[in-house]
Design a protein that fits this description.
This protein is α+β, with helices and mostly antiparallel strands and 78 residues long. The chain has a domain of 35 residues. The chain is 17% helix and 26% strand. A two-stranded antiparallel ribbon has the order 1-2. The protein has a two-stranded antiparallel sheet with strand order 3-4. The longest helix has 7 residues. It is elongated.
Length: 78
């Protein structure tokens, strides 16, 4: 099946025809794993990120400082 490769801000995107994407379990905006295997690009759906995956993405550059909510602003219980 022939398709096209589109340019994106962070790389390229391969346009997967809807019928093929459905058969493969891929959804627009959904998570996917991509790897190069034997000279071929392999794309498969993946589950949601685990806590370990999310924590591995924390770096000194993207770690925010402490956050304080401040004093009560209304009738909320303390």
């Amino acid at each position: 099946m022939r398709t096209r490769v589109e340019t994106c801000p962070d790389g390229v995107a391969v346009v997967v025809p809807a019928a093929l994407a459905e058969q493969a379990g891929l959804r627009g905006g959904g998570p996917a794993e991509v790897e190069l295997s034997g000279g071929r690009l392999v794309v498969r759906p993946s589950g949601p990120a685990t806590l370990a995956d999310l924590l591995a993405g924390i770096t000194p550059d993207n770690l925010h400082g402490e956050w304080a909510p401040g004093p009560p602003a209304g009738a909320e219980p303390l």
